[in-house]
Design goal:
alpha/beta, globular, DHP_synth_dom, magnesium, metal-binding, transferase, Pterin-binding_dom
Length: 267
């Protein structure tokens, strides 16, 4: 960051309950194999999660999350010492241990709202930070989708936190409007249509729609069948200014970026 070419963040879930079953991996050797394949296919960031936060789920406790994610980060940092390793966590204690173990970025679904120590911790470590918008814990967010002006409210929420992070000295900030988090299917498409608005925050914009409900519910299919639909919404995100695509399927996302760039150069 910053990159002129859109980047791909590959998802590595060490959970046993992530919404897309094929993304789950609990064996370190298999995790390393998947990571290597993602990097070979063109990912530049690996995002490791040990606590599913899909809407409506029961959140794993801190001890379980740490047990899942810390060995994964240690193994990845040893094998791929120059790669950007992101940890998908909203807990500062998990963030601290994994940053010490070699992670370089924290991907926080709560945007610092669930743990007041997160922003100061990220600042102390000089880490990158993905600032996402949501409302409430996963078991609450499905009921908190009322907005008077969706885009303006999400933007304002992120803008206030970008300001706080910058005041603390955090410079590597990525903003994520939080597709699927406290937004219904229609609202996700409203955000996608207005994604370019978030560029005004002066940070790279991340779009995380891979195999999410906005795709499979719209098409009447399952997450396992949602790769083609994911490629479509990722392409729309690129056309509307996305700088980073967070995906389960790296090869297809990289192909979308390559075709988008060929299209952009042909204008």
């Amino acid at each position: 960051m910053p990159h002129s070419s859109p980047q791909i963040m590959g998802i590595l879930n060490t959970t046993d309950d992530s919404f897309y079953a094929a993304s789950r991996v609990n064996d370190l050797q298999e995790l390393l194999r998947r990571a290597e394949r993602m990097l070979e296919q063109g990912a530049s960031i690996l995002d490791v999660g040990g606590c599913s936060t899909r809407p409506g789920c029961t959140v794993a406790d801190a001890e379980t999350e740490m047990r899942r994610v810390l060995p994964a980060v240690e193994a990845l940092a040893r094998r791929f010492p120059t790669v950007e390793i992101s940890v998908d966590t909203f807990r500062s204690e998990v963030a601290e241990k994994t940053l010490e173990a070699g992670a370089t970025m924290i991907n926080d679904i709560s945007g610092g709202d669930f743990d007041p120590q997160m922003f100061p911790l990220v600042a102390r470590h000089g880490a990158g930070y993905v600032l996402m918008h949501t409302r409430g814990l996963p078991d609450q967010m499905i009921h908190r989708t009322e907005y008077s002006d969706l885009v303006a409210q999400v933007y304002g929420h992120l803008a206030r936190r970008v300001e706080r992070l910058r005041a603390l000295g955090v410079s590597r900030i990525v903003v994520d409007p939080g597709f699927g988090f406290a937004k219904d299917v229609r609202q996700n498409f409203v955000l996608l249509r207005h994604l370019e608005v978030f560029k005004r925050l002066g940070c790279p914009v991340l779009a995380g729609m891979s195999r999410k409900g906005m795709v499979w519910k719209t098409l009447g299919i399952s997450p396992g069948e949602a790769l083609n639909g994911t490629t479509v919404v990722n392409t729309l995100a690129l056309c509307h200014g996305a700088d980073i695509l967070r995906v389960h399927d790296v090869k297809e996302a990289v192909e979308a970026v390559r075709l988008f760039e060929a299209f952009r150069e042909g204008q």
